């Protein structure tokens, strides 16, 4: 059911729903091959609750779709979709637009070249989708309820992408912290709290993220970076152990030697001599 939604409130919200419904496509001969391409002036999400077929877009290749596939259609991008020969399917759909979705396209959360997301929705959300279609048939349609329901369903469909995106973002952040630590390898310590403040992250949240990614606290990880660098210097330079200790920010050579033994199982001197004997 399509309907008018000229509300400035939803335009300013960046999320304007203009249609919601469901449809059954019965067994038809070569339905997909005979269907012509069409172009929308808004976004659409078409979720396949049963059956199988194909989806093809001018921005990408022909894609096989089945139960649990959600096809995203983009403004101005020709497309076609439907059941394969002698197949039927049941679909649910939304029509929508707004700057939120434009931003998702810019950041490639939604990508016209990858228009299908596979994520099986629970029955309770399909039931809600059917209820929203009924609300759309009222005059006037209940726009706040339809929008709230759409948000819940839409973000559930996107949840696999959002988890992957968040995981990648957190991984990049942890790698950035490690890179910053390596730049400060000669300092007596890495000021993790100052880094979190400068990057505008919660100190406790950032510590948890870093430990989850590396398996170590920032302090212990920094110690291991220093010992790793010390091993290189012990093997490939003629610097004395006292000099190496100072170069890596240790003010106490004996503390450095104890830490080295704790992590490596050898003293710095033993480590250097064992390599010389091996050569």
Can you give keywords for this protein?
51% helix; Jelly Rolls; 279 residues; Arc Repressor Mutant, subunit A; 11 helices; 7-stranded antiparallel beta sheet
Helix and strand layout, with pairings?
Blueprint: H1 8-13, E1 16-25, H2 31-34, E2 43-57, E3 63-66, E4 69-73, E5 79-83, E6 89-97, H3 99-106, E7 116-118, H4 123-136, H5 143-183, H6 192-198, H7 203-214, H8 218-236, H9 241-247, H10 253-264, H11 268-278
Antiparallel strand pairs: 1-6, 2-3, 2-4, 2-5, 2-6, 4-7
Helix pairs in contact: 4-5, 5-7, 8-11
Describe the structure.
The chain is α+β, with helices and mostly antiparallel strands. The chain has 2 domains: 8-164, Regulatory protein AraC (Jelly Rolls), CATH 2.60.120; 184-279, Homeodomain-like (Arc Repressor Mutant, subunit A), CATH 1.10.10. 51% of the residues lie in helices and 18% in strands. The chain is built from 11 helices and 7 strands. The chain has helices at 8-13, 31-34, 99-106, 123-136, 143-183, 192-198, 203-214, 218-236, 241-247, 253-264, 268-278, and strands at 16-25, 43-57, 63-66, 69-73, 79-83, 89-97, 116-118. Strands 1, 2, 3, 4, 5, 6 and 7 form a 7-stranded antiparallel β-sheet that branches. Helix 4 packs across helix 5, helix 5 (143-183) packs across helix 7 and helix 8 (218-236) packs across helix 11. It is elongated, with a radius of gyration of 29 Å. The protein starts with 7 loop residues before the first helix and ends with a helix. The mean pLDDT is 86.
């Amino acid at each position: 059911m399509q309907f008018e939604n000229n509300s400035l409130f939803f335009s300013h919200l960046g999320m304007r729903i203009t249609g919601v419904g469901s449809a059954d496509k019965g067994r038809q001969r070569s339905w997909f091959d005979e269907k012509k391409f069409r172009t929308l002036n808004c976004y659409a999400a078409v979720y396949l609750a049963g059956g199988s077929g194909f989806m093809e877009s001018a921005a990408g290749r022909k894609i096989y779709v089945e139960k649990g596939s959600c096809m995203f259609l983009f403004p101005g991008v020709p497309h076609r979709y439907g059941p394969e020969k002698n197949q039927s399917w049941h679909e649910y759909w939304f029509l929508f637009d707004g700057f939120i979705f434009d931003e998702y396209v810019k950041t490639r959360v939604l990508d016209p070249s990858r228009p299908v997301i596979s994520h099986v929705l629970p029955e309770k959300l399909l039931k809600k989708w059917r209820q929203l279609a009924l609300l759309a048939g009222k005059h006037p349609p209940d726009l706040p309820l339809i929008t709230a329901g759409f948000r819940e369903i839409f973000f559930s469909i996107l949840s696999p992408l959002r988890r992957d995106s968040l995981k990648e973002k957190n991984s990049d952040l942890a790698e950035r912290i490690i890179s910053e630590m390596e730049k400060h390898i000669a300092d007596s310590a890495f000021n993790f709290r100052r880094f979190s403040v400068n990057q505008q992250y919660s100190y406790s949240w950032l510590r948890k993220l870093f430990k989850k990614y590396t398996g170590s606290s920032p302090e212990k990880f920094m110690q291991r970076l220093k010992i790793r660098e010390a091993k290189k210097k012990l093997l490939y330079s003629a610097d004395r152990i006292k000099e190496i200790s100072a170069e890596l920010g240790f003010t106490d050579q004996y503390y450095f030697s104890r830490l080295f033994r704790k992590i490596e199982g050898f003293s710095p001197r033993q480590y250097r001599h064992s390599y010389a004997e091996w050569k």
